[in-house]
């Protein structure tokens, strides 16, 4: 994954004092106990990814952190990555023409979590989405699929959605997505 490679590269470029500064700047985002255990940049980035503070298509928080520790070189590296990603073609990623997300949202009801779990989407993210949209099943499903697409990036394939639907015995929905 190019984004994880970038984070690893950024992490490798950080000194101990810079990591300490980053940890200090993240105190309002990460619990103290978790921060104390962080010894390397990749560990900090993993927590920030898990908590959705940084994402492949939203690196503004990370950029701000790097600016605050005066690492303009790393900010430039991050911006280059974002620009390159914007230029790349989406391959077999669900797109506007196929609209599988709309079809799924229109046809999958209460069992949406089963579908999302078949896509190996992290349980923590599912819980966050449910908490953010407590009374709206359709929005929970829509946000979950959107987050799955972001999480998978270019590996988010329509064929994976169809396979997951079939594993959940949602064959009618899978057929509609295929059409």
TrEMBL record:
Death domain location: 97-179
A GO BP entry: positive regulation of innate immune response
Pfam family, one: Death
Matches recorded under InterPro entries: DEATH-like_dom_sf, Death_dom, DED_dom, FADD
Domain of life: Eukaryota
SMART domains: DEATH, DED
SUPFAM superfamilies tied to this protein: DEATH domain
Cytoplasm listed as a keyword: yes
Domain DED: 2-80
GO terms assigned for molecular function: caspase binding; death receptor binding; protein-macromolecule adaptor activity
GO cellular component terms listed in the entry, alphabetical order: CD95 death-inducing signaling complex; cytoplasm
The protein's role, per its UniProt record: Apoptotic adapter molecule that recruits caspases CASP8 or CASP10 to the activated FAS/CD95 or TNFRSF1A/TNFR-1 receptors. The resulting aggregate called the death-inducing signaling complex (DISC) performs CASP8 proteolytic activation. Active CASP8 initiates the subsequent cascade of caspases mediating apoptosis. Involved in interferon-mediated antiviral immune response, playing a role in the positive regulation of interferon signaling.
Protein name, per record: FAS-associated death domain protein
Organism: Chlamydotis macqueenii
């Amino acid at each position: 994954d190019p984004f994880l490679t970038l984070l690893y590269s950024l992490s490798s470029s950080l000194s101990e004092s810079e990591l300490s500064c980053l940890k200090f700047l993240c105190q309002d985002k990460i619990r103290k106990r978790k921060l104390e255990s962080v010894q390397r940049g990749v560990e900090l980035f993993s927590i920030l990814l898990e908590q959705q503070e940084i994402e492949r298509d939203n690196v503004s928080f990370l950029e701000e952190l790097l600016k605050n520790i005066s690492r303009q070189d790393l900010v430039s590296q991050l911006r280059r990555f974002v620009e390159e990603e914007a230029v790349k073609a989406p391959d077999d990623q669900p797109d506007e023409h196929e609209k599988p997300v709309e079809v799924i949202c229109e046809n999958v009801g209460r069992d949406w979590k089963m579908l999302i779990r078949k896509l190996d989407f992290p349980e923590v993210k599912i819980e966050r989405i449910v908490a953010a949209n407590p009374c709206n099943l359709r929005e929970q499903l829509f946000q979950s699929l959107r987050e799955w697409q972001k999480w998978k990036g270019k590996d988010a394939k329509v064929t994976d959605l169809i396979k997951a639907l079939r594993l959940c015995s949602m064959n009618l929905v899978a057929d509609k997505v295929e059409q």
